[in-house]
């Protein structure tokens, strides 16, 4: 009898809330599964979504042409941010001492679209996300990635609130 492969997608970003949610996932979902011997075929996918690259016009508002070094500097900054977030997430995983297959994926674009698309493409069994704890006004202006994803994906979604946001 073949054991079903399970995929848990964990959306990560540079926020404290995201790293708390990752730690919570490891300690409350993965560790419980390990105690029940259910993690041998489980993969935790760390998903970071880069903002879409800005659409540069040939000239900025002052009429100066964007120089290639400015564009290159922005791309380098984004690359360093991705490395930093993934390193932080991997450190949280190592600190937990929980053995799990780990994959890292980086997408680019609108966060809710990339997250939902990745969950669907991978056939994930669960999506775990942190909540930034925005109030009504901020959420109305900025939108809520976690709320949108919870409505759109077909698998269970765990939205983890940081204790400081409760």
Short description:
By secondary structure, the protein is an alpha/beta fold.
Write the layout of secondary structure elements.
Elements: E1 6-12, H1 16-35, E2 42-50, H2 68-96, E3 101-108, H3 111-122, E4 126-131, H4 136-142, H5 145-152, E5 157-161
Parallel strand pairs: 1-2, 1-4, 2-3, 4-5
Describe the protein's architecture and organization.
With 166 residues, the protein is α/β, with parallel strands linked by helices. The protein has one domain (6-165): Rossmann fold (3-Layer(aba) Sandwich), CATH 3.40.50. Helix content is 46%, strand content 21%. The protein has 5 helices and 5 strands; from the N terminus they run E-H-E-H-E-H-E-H-H-E. The chain has helices at residues 16-35, 68-96, 111-122, 136-142, 145-152, and strands at residues 6-12, 42-50, 101-108, 126-131, 157-161. Helix 1 packs parallel to helix 2 and helix 3 runs parallel beside helix 5 (145-152). The termini are far apart.
Look at the structure and name the CATH superfamily. Answer: HUPs
The pLDDT mean sits at 82
Q: Kindly provide the name of the CATH class.
A: Alpha Beta
Largest sheet: 5 strands, parallel
Strand order of the largest sheet: 3-2-1-4-5
Looking at this protein, list some descriptive labels:
5 helices, 21% strand, five-stranded parallel sheet, 166 residues, globular, Rossmann fold, single chain, alpha/beta
């Amino acid at each position: 009898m073949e054991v079903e492969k399970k995929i848990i997608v964990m959306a990560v970003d540079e926020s404290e809330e995201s790293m708390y949610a990752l730690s919570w996932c490891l300690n409350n979902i993965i560790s419980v599964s390990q105690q029940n011997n259910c993690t041998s075929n489980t993969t935790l996918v760390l998903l970071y979504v880069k903002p879409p690259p800005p659409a540069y016009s040939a000239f900025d508002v002052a009429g100066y042409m964007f120089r290639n070094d400015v564009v290159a500097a922005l791309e380098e900054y984004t690359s360093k941010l991705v490395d930093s977030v993934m390193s932080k997430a991997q450190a949280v995983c190592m600190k937990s001492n929980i053995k799990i297959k780990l994959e890292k994926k980086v997408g680019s674009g609108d966060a809710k679209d990339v997250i939902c698309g990745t969950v669907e493409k991978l056939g994930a069994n669960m999506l775990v996300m942190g909540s930034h704890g925005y109030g009504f006004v901020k959420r109305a202006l900025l939108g809520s990635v976690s709320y949108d994803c919870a409505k759109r994906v077909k698998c269970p979604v765990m939205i983890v609130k940081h204790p400081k946001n409760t």
